[in-house]
Amino acid sequence: MSLYPLLRLELLRQRRQPMVMLSLVLVGVLGTPLAATQALERGDDLDIEDALSGEALRSTPRIQADATFAAWVTEADELELVEGPLDEGGELEPHEVIAHVTVDPDKRRIRVETGPRGPKVRNVIDRIKDIRDRHDSAARVEEAENIGVDLDALQPEVHIERHERADTKVSPWVLYGLPWLMTMLATTGTLYGAIDVLLSERLHHTAETILTSAATRRAIAIAKAMIVAMLGVGFAAASLGGLAAGQLLGLFPSLDPAPGPLVALGALGVAAVLAVQLSAIFLGVATFCEDHKSAGLVAGPMLMAPPVLATVAAFPGPSLSVWSACVPVTNILLVWRDALLGTLTPVGAVGVALVVAVQVGLSWRFTARRLADPDIVTGQATAEGRRKLGRYGPDALTTYALALASFWFIGVILQQLHLEIGLVLSQLSFVAIGLGAAAFFGMGRDRLRLRRPALVDLAFGVGIGLCTPALATGLMAVQELVFPGAQVFAERFGASLGLERPLWVTLLLFAVLPGLCEELLFRSALLGMLERDARPVPRVLLVAFLFALLHLSVFRLAPTMVLGVVAGWLTLRSRSVWPAVAFHVTHNAASFAVASSGALEVEPTTAAVAFVASVVVFGALATAVERRQRMA
Amino acid sequence: MSIEVHDLCKTFPGPEPVVAVDHVSFSVSPGKVFALLGPNGAGKTTTLRMLTTLLPPDEGRASIGGHDVVQASDQARSALGYVSTSTGVYPRLTAFEMITMFGQIQGVADANGRAEALIERLDLGDYRDVRCGRLSTGNKQKVSIARALVHDPPILVLDEPTTGLDVLVAQRFLELVGSLRDEGKTVLYSTHIMREVERLADDVAILYQGRIIATGTVEELLERTEERHLEEAFVKLVQAVES
Q: Which of A211, A422, A511, B71 measures 20 to 30 Å from B60, CA to CA?
C-alpha cells in the first residue's frame, strides 16, 4: 500500500501545527540571542582542537601588547606575550591571542581589545588589572602616605578601557551555538509532533479507525515518523531563518559574522537527519504516553537530554569513535562538528550514516510493533505505563524538570553574565523550586526529612565527605581509561574554581551553597516526593541519576551519581537530610582543597595509596552507619 | 463472504487474570445480520477486536471472508468495515476529506466519486465541507459509517454503533443497516439494546462472562424461554447460568 494517502492524512491532521510552530519559533528566535551569546562566550574560552587534545587547558594565555605594557609584564604574571608588530584593528584570534593591549602615551589609560566576554577573557582582564595595580602602586603608596588614607580606598590612576570585538577569525557560534540551537529546536518540534500524532489518535478515539483500515502498522508508523521529522525540520529551518533575519536586522551584533549559505544548508541537512533520528526515538517513547499530561511529564526531562548531549558533542568532549558513533543525537552532532572543523573522515561519515540508518530502522520497527501491541489498543499498556510512571512520581519529575529548566535556561546564562551572582541565584532557585513544590504537594517536615540530626550522623557525613574526593578521583581515573577526557576536564574544573577570589567566598560558592541547596532539592524534596511510590533502592538511584544529570557534564556523570547515591543512603539511614548536607559540603570543600593543592598531579603510587586508604575509611564509616541503623 | 469463528479465547493477564472470551464459536452468512448480545463486560468488544485484527486471540481461529485474522490480517482488514464507539473521526478533517482519505488508504480507485455517493446516500450533503470536530454526534457517526463503507466491504462489523445517538438518528441508522443486509452484506452487530436486536437480527448469540450461553433466532430464544420479549428471555437465560 502506498504511503502517500497516509502522509496526506497526517498532513491534514497537522493543520494547526503552523500556529504552534510559529509560537515555538518565536520562543526560539527570542531565546536565540541568549543561547548563542552564551555559546559564543563559552566558545571563546577554548579552541576546540586544542581542547580535545587538552592543550588549551594547559597553555598560558597569550596577549599581544605594545612596548609599554610589555615592559610591565613579568614572568610571575603567567602571560605569554606574542611578539611582532601590534596588529591593531586587524583580525583578533581569541584562541591564539586573548587580547590586544595598548597603553596611551600619557600612561593614564590602557586599552584592552578582546573578543566577547568569557571566563578566559575575564581571567586575562584580571591579570592585566593586577599588572596595572602593581605598576601603579609605587606612585599610589606615596600619595596614600602623603594624604594619610588607606591605599585600597584610592581609585587606580590608570584606567582600563575594554573594547569588545566580534570579528573573530573562527566563528565560535557556528561551531558551538548552531549545533546547540538546532538540537533544541529539532528536539522541541519532533517531540511535540511525536506526542501529538499519537496522543491525538487516542484523544479523538481514532486509533482503532486507522488500525482497522487496510494500512499496515509499519506503514502507519513510517508515515507518522516522516511527518514528525518534517515538523522537526520545519521548526529548525524556521528558527534558523528567524536567526538569519535577526542578524540581517543587526539585532545580534555579537553573532557576526553570519554563517555562509553553505553552513546554513549544512545546518539544515544536519537538522533533517537529527529530526528523523529524534522522530524515530520519540515516536517509540510516545506510545507509552496516555495523555498530554503524562506526555508532558516525559517531555520535560527528555527535552533536557538532547541539549545536554549536544553540549557534550559540540564542546570539548568525546571524539568520533565507535562508541560515540552509537549514541543517538551525539553521533550526528559529532559529524557536524568534525565537518565544520574539516576533520571528518569518509569512514566516520559513512559509519555514522549506517549507524543512524540502523537506529532509525530499529526504532520504526519498535514503533510499528508497539502500534500492533494489543495492549496499546485496549489502553492496558498505557494504564500500565501510567502506573509505572506513577511509581516514579510525576510530582518529583515535574519538580526536577522545573529545576533543570531554571538551571539550564536561567542559571547558566546568569553565570555567564556574572559568575558569582549566577551561582548564588541558581542554587537559591533549587531551594525555592524544591521546597515550593514540596509545599504545593503538601509534604510535611517529616517527609522532607528536615528533623534535627544526631551529632554522630553529622560526624559520619563529614567523615565520609573527607573520603569521597579520593574516591571520585579514582573513579575518574578509571573512567579515563574507557572514556578519555576526564582528566582534562578535572584539571579544567579545578582551575575554574577560581583560585583568585578569597577562600571564604570560594568555599561559600562551591561548597556551602551547593551542599545546602542541592541537598534540599534532591535528598529532601525529590527523595521525599518519591517516598510513597518507589522502593528505597530505585528511589535513591533515580534521584542520584537526576542529580548527576543536572551537572551537565558527561565526565562528571559517574562520580556525581556515586556521590548522589552516598548522600541518598545517608539521608535514608539517618532519617534527616542534614548529614547529607554535611557530607556534600565537606566533599566539595575537600575536593577544592585537592584541586588547589595540586594533588591531582601527584605520582600514581601516592594517588593509589590515597585511593585505597579512602576506600578503607569509607568502608569502615559505612559499616558503622549501617550498624548504628540496625541498633536503632 | 462470511465470518467464521471457532473456539476463540482471550485472557487479559495481570495480578488477577480476566477471561474476557472463553471458547466462543459462531458463523455469519452473507445477507444476514448476526447480533452479539450481552451485558457490559460480557466480552462482545473483545471478540470484535479480535475479528478486526486489533487483538490477537490466545486460542482458536477466526476468519473474515476466508482470510485468517492472524495469518492474513491485512487481507482480513481489507474485507471489512468496522464501526464502534472507539472508531472516531479526525476533527481537523472535513467530512469529505475523511471519507476520501480512507478511500485512498483502502485502495479505492475513485475515492472522490465514492465519497460523493456516500455523502448523498447518508444525507450528509450540508456537512460535506464542515470539519468533523464541529459535527453533531449523529453526523459524526454517519461520517464514520461512510468511512467504513467507502471501499464497499462485503463484511460489516458494528460494535454498539447507536451509542450516543438520539432516537430518530438511531432509527435511520438501523434502516441503513437493514438495507445493507438486503444488499447482501454480512453484518456482525454487537449491542446490549434488545429492541435493536428484535428489529434487525436474523440470528442472535447471547454472550455472558465471555461464553455464548444461547444462540438461535429471536423467535427460537423466545420459544425456548417461554417469554414474550427478548429482554425477559435474556434475563432468564442469564439467571439460569448464574444459578
A: A211
Residue corresponding to grid cell 543587526:
A250
Lowest-confidence pick of A56-60, B11-15, B210-214: A56-60
Q: Which has the closest alpha carbon to A339: A522, A496, A179? A: A179
Residue A583 has a pLDDT of: 93
**What is the arithmetic mean of pLDDT over A594-599?**
65
**Residues of chain B with C-beta less than 8 angstroms from the C-beta of A1:** 105, 107
* B54, B91, B105 ranked by CB distance to A5: nearest: B105
- For domain B3-79+154-242, the question of CATH label 3.40.50.300 is answered with yes
Q: How many residues does chain B have?
A: 243
| Domains of chain B by residue range | 3-79+154-242, 89-152
CA gyration radius, chain A: 27
Closest-CA distance of chain B to residue A171, Å: 45
State pLDDT tens for residues B182-201.
Answer: 988 999 999 888 888 888 88
Which of A8, A205, A213 is opposite residue B88, by nearest beta carbon?
Answer: A205
Q: Are A205 and B55 an interchain contact pair (Cβ–Cβ within 8 Å)?
A: no
Could you give the C-alpha distances from A613 to A288, A566, A623, in angstroms and in order? Answer: 47, 18, 15
Shortest Cα distance, chain B CAs vs residue A209, angstroms: 4
The sheet carrying B155-159 orders its strands as B80-84, B155-159, B186-191, B33-37, B203-208, B211-216
Sequence ranges of the domains in chain A: 4-44+171-390, 55-164, 397-631
Using CB atoms, pick whichever of A12, A216, A374 lies closest to residue B92. A12
Give the mean model confidence (pLDDT) for residues A203-215: 83
CB contact under 8 A, A215 and B105: yes
Q: What amino acid is encoded at B129 in this protein?
A: D
Residue A469 CA from chain centroid, whole number = 22
**Rounded Cα–Cα distance for residues A389 and A398 (Å):** 12
Find cell 430464544 and name the residue. Answer: B221
What's the pLDDT band for A554 if we cut at 50, 70, 90? low
Q: What is the mean pLDDT of chain B?
A: 88
Residues of chain B with Cβ-Cβ distance to A13 below 8 Å are 90, 92-93
d(CA A398, CA A92): 45
CA dihedral sign, ordered B141, B142, B147, B152? positive
Range in A73-87, A594-608, B155-169 the model is least confident about: A594-608
Residue ranges of alpha helices (H) inside chain B are 44-51, 73-78, 95-105, 111-121, 137-149, 167-182, 194-200, 218-225, 230-242
Nearest to B104 among A5, A374, A377 (CB): A5
Separation of CA A91 from chain center: 31
